[in-house]
Amino acid sequence: MKFGLSILHVLASGIMATAQPVSQTVVAEHFTNTYCSVCASRNPGLYSNHAAFPQVLHIAYHPSSPYVACPLNQHNKSENDARANFYGVFGSTPRLLIQAKEVTGSFTTASIFQNELGKTTAFEVSAKLTESAGNIEVRVVVTKKDASSLTNLTLYVPLVEDTLFFAAANGESKHMDVFRKSFWGNTPLAITAPANVGDSIVSTQQITVNSAWNKGRIYAIAILQDGSKNHVQAAKSNKLPYATGIVNTSIKQLSIFPNPSSDHIQLNGNNAYRYNLSITDMTGKVISSLSISGRDKIDVSALPIGTYIVRVSQDDDVQYVKFIKN
Length: 326
Known about the structure:
Elements: H1 2-18, E1 22-23, E2 27-31, H2 37-51, E3 57-61, H3 71-74, H4 77-87, E4 95-98, E5 101-102, H5 111-114, E6 120-121, E7 123-132, E8 135-144, E9 152-156, E10 158-165, E11 174-182, E12 189-192, E13 200-208, E14 218-226, E15 231-236, E16 256-257, E17 264-267, E18 274-281, E19 286-293, E20 297-299, E21 306-314, E22 317-325
Parallel strand pairs: 2-3
Antiparallel strand pairs: 1-6, 2-4, 4-5, 7-8, 8-13, 9-12, 9-14, 10-11, 10-14, 14-15, 16-17, 17-20, 18-19, 18-21, 21-22
């Protein structure tokens, strides 16, 4: 009998050892606008503060209110606005929520991040990005690591570009962790929590690549919340492997020269061929569309200084080439 009891005790101890909470990842959701002068004055202090807490995930959304002309909003108005409305903060900027709770005071005090660190949760989340045939797929795994009464959860997975460089109307020239696209659209995905400790659920979704995105800078953040919008867990995905300058396609390898350029650019294409070409800025706005031969010069002298994406197509083949205007 004593032997049997000791076996049960060991088994119970083994089961209990596997049920352990995990560290909770902190997320800062920031609502700003490139036409907002107050944002331009407050954002640098926030970014400096955040730099001391690199473990905190930061996302910058650009809602259309109070300034509809913001190009980062216009790139994806519906989903930028939807996230602001989700929290009830649509209408003014800047606004900052950390762990789904709004910061009503200064953005520059360390305590806004420090007070949220060191907490635990019953759920572990991982996210992975892959690319295939012009689509980006995210795979999110939610694993139950400890006992929890939570059953109904939501999963929100934004695609984020780590840095954009362009001169905005409010004077900002460097834009951090910019929201680009939500994998499940305006509304988070409703999921049911895994039933038992050790169980997992897997969610996958695809979106189409946009030529305005710098694929070497994009990643996903998976945000798990409960039915009351309380933060449960989060995870940052990998970045896509991406060679700067040229994306490999079935078109003969093309490049742009000179690159950087201040006055004109030219393809190293075949002069006997015609190529359809469009130039897009980093906000997704199409600057110019034209048809050229492989050696035609393209005047870019009037473009503002910055980074641009050139989409080159011939029949059904497409290639994206990045160039810098200096």
